[in-house]
């Protein structure tokens, strides 16, 4: 059966195994980005991302101009039983995966909860609907005082989330919100983000702007709001929304064996439809589109402007640094922690949605539309 992991994940998993088994001892230097790229037959961007993710996981540290080194493991101090018995109220945070932005989510919530005498426990659903549901059912039964949920999607486990909220259990979502449910949420202002990116492209002279998302519009409220912001900007500038320029829900069709062919075919189709700019769902997708555009001989931004979303670390390290939209993950989770403490301590069960402003960061992947002679 073919390995469907992303190429960077293959490198990441191999390096993790070699560190955990002692092949690379503490303080040992790892191969460079160039050496890893040659070893695995990938681009330097891919090998760089593997090292970035390894650093995020706390397994290595990097010295500027020197390289990457295995981080010595710190032995945790044993926890005394009397400390466990005296622990204060506990809030659990459920995340779909762990990366740099998720560390900011953890820090924001932990800083506030710690100041209020609460403990924070972290749980990873690992992109599994079943695992997310199991956590949502088990944690309240085990005595956890409340949950901050970063949902897998807003069409998954709706019945479980609704049951918790309807029964009065303290629950707040971050990043996404559930329509029609009485669940408070703290989200980035994705609508404004989608609107400002489309508006900026229009200001640069682009009218044939594609909206590209690997998942369906309805799958996550964040993506839906970015799309609706894109649509409103087009409407406000009196540009017709062309459904043929909206590409979504193709993540099941792409793996390492066909990614290059898939994206280059998509780009060729978009150019044939006179598209001059792409608004991508997130930075990793934007980076894939950028890489394949350059490999196809498409000039970025001379022929095609590309905008991402999230201000992922990779956005500043690709061949043409990506214009993107930054979210304040720390502030998101801190506000969520404030909300859930308010629900617990003041029995404030009224539905609230707090939107955190986003910021556009312009880099070299966007430019004034080139008018063909």
Strand order of the largest sheet: 4-3-5-6-7-13
* Overall CATH class of the largest domain: Alpha Beta
**Tally of contiguous helical segments:** 12
Order of helices and strands: HHHEEHEHEHEHEEHEHEHEHEEHEE
Indicate the mean pLDDT: 90
**Any idea how many domains?**
3
Helix content: 40-55%
Regions with pLDDT < 50 over 5+ consecutive residues?
A: 78-86
Gyration radius, rounded: 22 Å
Question: What coarse outline follows from CA principal-axis ratios?
Answer: globular
Structural classification? alpha/beta
- At CATH's second level, what is the architecture of the largest domain? 3-Layer(aba) Sandwich
Largest sheet report: 6 strands, parallel
Describe it.
This is Transcriptional regulator. Pfam families: GntR, Peripla_BP_3. InterPro entries: LacI/GalR-like_sensor (IPR046335), Peripla_BP_I (IPR028082), Tscrpt_reg_HTH_GntR (IPR000524), WH-like_DNA-bd_sf (IPR036388), WH_DNA-bd_sf (IPR036390). Keywords: DNA-binding, Transcription, Transcription regulation. It contains twelve helices and 14 strands. The strands form four sheets. Strands 4-3-5-6-7-13 form a six-stranded parallel sheet, sandwiched between helices. Strand 10, helix 11 and strand 11 form a beta-alpha-beta unit. About 2% of the residues have low confidence.
């Amino acid at each position: 059966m073919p390995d469907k992991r992303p190429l960077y994940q293959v490198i990441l998993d191999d390096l993790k195994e070699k560190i955990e088994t002692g092949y690379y001892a503490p303080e040992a230097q790892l191969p460079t980005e160039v050496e890893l790229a040659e070893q695995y037959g990938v681009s330097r961007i891919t090998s760089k991302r593997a090292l970035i993710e390894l650093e995020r996981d706390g397994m290595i540290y990097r010295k500027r101009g020197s390289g990457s080194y295995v981080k010595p493991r710190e032995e945790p101090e044993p926890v005394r039983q009397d400390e466990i018995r005296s622990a204060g109220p506990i809030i659990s945070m459920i995340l779909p995966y762990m990366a740099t932005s998720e560390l900011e989510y953890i820090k924001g919530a932990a800083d506030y909860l710690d100041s209020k005498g609460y403990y924070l426990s972290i749980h990873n659903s690992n992109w599994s609907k079943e695992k997310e549901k199991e956590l949502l059912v088990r944690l309240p039964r085990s005595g956890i005082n409340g949950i901050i949920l970063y949902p897998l999607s807003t069409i998954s486990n709706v019945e479980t989330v609704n049951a918790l909220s309807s029964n009065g259990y303290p629950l707040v979502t971050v990043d996404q919100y559930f329509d029609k449910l009485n669940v408070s949420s703290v989200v980035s202002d994705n609508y404004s983000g989608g609107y400002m990116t489309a508006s900026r492209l229009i200001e640069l002279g682009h009218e044939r702007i594609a909206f590209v998302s690997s998942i369906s519009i309805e799958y996550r409220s964040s993506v839906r709001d970015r799309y609706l912001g894109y649509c409103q900007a087009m409407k406000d500038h009196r540009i017709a929304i062309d459904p043929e320029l909206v590409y979504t829900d193709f993540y099941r069709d792409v793996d390492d064996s066909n990614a290059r062919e898939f994206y280059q075919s998509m780009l060729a189709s978009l150019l044939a439809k006179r598209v001059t700019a792409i608004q991508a769902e997130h930075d990793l997708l934007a980076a894939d589109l950028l890489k394949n555009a350059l490999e196809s001989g498409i000039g970025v931004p001379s022929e095609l402007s590309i905008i991402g979303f999230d201000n992922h670390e990779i956005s500043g390290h690709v061949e043409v640094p990506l214009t993107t939209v930054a979210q304040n993950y720390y502030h998101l989770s801190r506000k969520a922690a404030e909300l859930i403490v308010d629900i617990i301590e003041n029995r404030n069960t009224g539905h609230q949605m707090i939107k955190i402003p986003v910021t556009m960061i312009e880099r070299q992947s966007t430019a004034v539309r080139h008018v063909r002679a």
